């Protein structure tokens, strides 16, 4: 009788690594000023009901989940993805210069904020706005929740239009507390129409849930700062690595 020897543990893992390498996708992120290419496999955390534990994949559109897993690999854990600011994530994704401007820098002038948003939108830069971190059970925290937006949260700026004399900003953010109160006033306006013409009913439904128009005065009242990512398609970059030695000599 002949026996087939069992494969060794090393051989099993080697074969598994080869299979993962063939199926893995590549994700390029800017980490500590240097581009790194990460291999992302198709193993994504799920709940006991087979739904995604983290980024939801509507109609199994997995690109968001892949990017999220790439950031989790950098942070060594999904749990460490909680928090952070949009500026860092946008810079790591695009490599472009990113900066934030606090509302107070505009000297409480709504006109300057509006002009700043319009100028950067005309340049086709990526824009977000952020709500401040607020103490639990505080009056301002209750005010935000009653309005329907989160504290310590980033919202994408999708559009800026003047409608019947009102300067409106179209925002998008994940998981608001229902719909913000501004929807009662501006909910009849279309949201991001120019890119939605070929979307299916499911995508349209989810886009309506996560987007809403807000008046400029409300933006100024509830949000803390604006972030600009100066990314443009077809731009090229040159990165040079250099060691800088601090001057320890007495310069007096």
TrEMBL record:
SUPFAM superfamilies assigned to the protein according to its UniProt record, in alphabetical order: Cysteine proteinases
Active-site residues (renumbered): 153
SMART domains, sorted: CysPc (SM00230)
GO MF term (any one): calcium-dependent cysteine-type endopeptidase activity
Pfam families named among the record's database cross-references: Peptidase_C2
GO biological process: proteolysis
InterPro entries the record matches: Calpain_cysteine_protease, Papain-like_cys_pep_sf, Peptidase_C2_calpain_cat
Domain Calpain catalytic: start-end pairs: 27-232
Family note: Belongs to the peptidase C2 family.
Entry protein name: Calpain catalytic domain-containing protein
Organism: Caenorhabditis elegans
